[in-house]
Design a protein that fits this description.
148 residues, 0% strand
């Protein structure tokens, strides 16, 4: 084999063409660049995907858990509406309904003479049996009203 160039080949070869047996520097650089680019895009995607959870982290526990579940649903189902709903829920500050309702329940327990937090003791867990009503009279009245 001769080391001379083919007569149709240009006399000056570009620097990215290597001799046989040498390391292809361009391929190595591009492989490293491709790995770094894929990792950077993946990191950007995950940071963007967890944006609603990071916003809701400062809010109430229940709101944070709902936003986290919506984020997981969006991640595993690829339905973007879950992510948008989680972002909207994270941005909206939900009012505290438990505080006023708890104060109302405490006041009602105090009015009823129960100790605070002891209002439901003594109430049976089983619901009461439904009362039996005789609907016979109502059926007769209905017949009279509908009969011409």
């Amino acid at each position: 084999m001769s080391a001379s160039l083919h007569p149709a080949a240009p006399h000056h070869l570009p620097p990215f063409i290597t001799a046989p047996g040498d390391t292809d520097i361009l391929m190595v650089v591009m492989a490293v660049f491709l790995i770094v680019a894929v990792l950077a895009v993946g990191l950007l995607f995950l940071r963007l995907h967890t944006l609603p959870e990071r916003i809701a982290h400062k809010s109430k526990k229940l709101q944070f858990e709902i936003v986290a579940v919506l984020g997981l649903l969006a991640l595993f189902t690829h339905i973007h509406a879950f992510w948008v709903a989680g972002l909207v829920l994270a941005l909206v500050d939900l009012p505290d309904f438990g505080g006023p309702l708890g104060r109302m329940a405490g006041s009602l327990e105090k009015l009823a003479g129960f100790a605070p937090g002891r209002g439901a003791e003594g109430v049976p867990d089983d619901p009461a049996a439904p009362l039996a009503h005789d609907h016979g009279d109502a059926r007769e009245e209905t017949k009279e009203l509908t009969h011409a």
